[in-house]
Amino acid sequence: MKARTALHALAWLALAGQAGLPVLAQADDGGLKVARRLAPSSLAKELDLRPARPLPEAPPSTQPLELNEAVRQAVARHPSISDAIATLAQQAGGVDVARAGYYPQVRVGVGGGTSNAPAAQGGSTGTVASASVSQMLYDFGKVDGAVAQSQALVRRQQAGILKQIDAVAQQAAEAVVMAHRYQSLLQIAQDQVRAVEAVLETARLRANAGLSTKADPIQAESRVDSARANMLQVKSQLAQWRERLGTLLGPGVPPTVAALPDGLARTLSVEAPTDTSLLPDVLAAEAERRAASAQLEIARANRYPTLSVDASVNKAMGGINPATLERNGTYHTVMLNLTSVIYQGGALDAQVRAASAAEDAARMRIETARLNAVDQARNYREQVIGAQARLGVLADRRRSIVEARDLYREQYTLGTRSILDLLNAEQEIYQAAAEQEAVLHDLWASRVGYIGATGQARAFYGLDNTTVQGMELLP
């Protein structure tokens, strides 16, 4: 059957082509070819794309960059927050549109046409001016539901702004932590280079004096090259994170990052239970549930009639009024209207079912948001506890290795210890110091993640009771 239908279609297309009739497939093929051409330059010209608008920039500063200051600068200029705020204004306009259903609708117009009035009454055509007023009296909650739905969408967008601010704050905090991490590792790598260079100098002096073999300076020089290569790698990683800071904060990033605020970190309690009621994802899901509930009320109200009062007046302007058949006549009406949809093919019932399902889905999104937040908070809490426990052990290890290195240095000078022992001790000191810094910054990264997962970003970074891109943030 399908093959026969396809043959019939092909035969019709062939006949249409022979008769010179337009064939839709041919036109669509030409449009498809144009749509498949990708030319960014032509597209930008057609869209009249303008150069990027410069973002706000903080004044250049030579002071070390503080964590909270970096977060404030990032949220003050990030365009995604501006986008969310503009969308909020759009949603707020929807509330005014919905509320307009409470007020009367006034229409005016002018039209012309023919009339079947007798010629004795003068002229058969004329221009008629009309005006009408319609006021809804009772609609069983249709307008109330539309207003409630629009207000819920506004609340959802407000939660979206909070979520976007928290996201940008977390990005800035992570960039600061990582930049400080490689800044500290660079200092440790430079110390390692200087320490190994000092060992190389000692090895050369001993070799020149005949107190050791020529192999000692060669071994030390190899370690110096390795330390320098490691230092360059760390410097490259630091440059990458400083570029990331430049993207978030602007080009005027201070040359150094200040020490991470341990005093502020002590105010963060990871043992406290997570309050999920203030999380942006939970607030957004609750707003979606209320919007779905309002949509359900609208769907139910659509089953009932709407009562309205309508008044209209029209007047012929230099011709015959078709309603009164009088020259320059005036006609007016005042009516009470009761309108209702009797049958829509089951659409009303389907709307009710769809709105009810949307409300149930929104409830599940609330529970999902709560569950994800608690899971993330627990994960970051364990990372924080583990990193804090490791820091004490690593500090003790570093002290013991430094003591061993100092002892090996004296013994090598006296000729009772080989240069490999001293070089290995310097390497272990670097590894212990680097590992200690890595765990410290892993601790901070876990704190930043915990702050974001529990919705404490605005309070922790000092954004509460401030204005961000025109939006006042309150606790």
UniProtKB/TrEMBL annotation:
Principal subcellular localization: membrane
Protein source organism: Variovorax paradoxus
GO cellular component, one term: efflux pump complex
Gene: oprM_1
Single GO MF annotation: efflux transmembrane transporter activity
Coiled-coil segments on the chain, per record: 186-244
Name of the featured protein: Outer membrane protein OprM
Keyword field: Cell outer membrane, Coiled coil, Membrane, Signal, Transmembrane, Transmembrane beta strand, Transport
Signal sequence, start to end: 1-27
Keyword field contains Coiled coil: yes
Similarity section: Belongs to the outer membrane factor (OMF) (TC 1.B.17) family.
Subcellular location(s) per record: Cell outer membrane
Pfam families on file: OEP (PF02321)
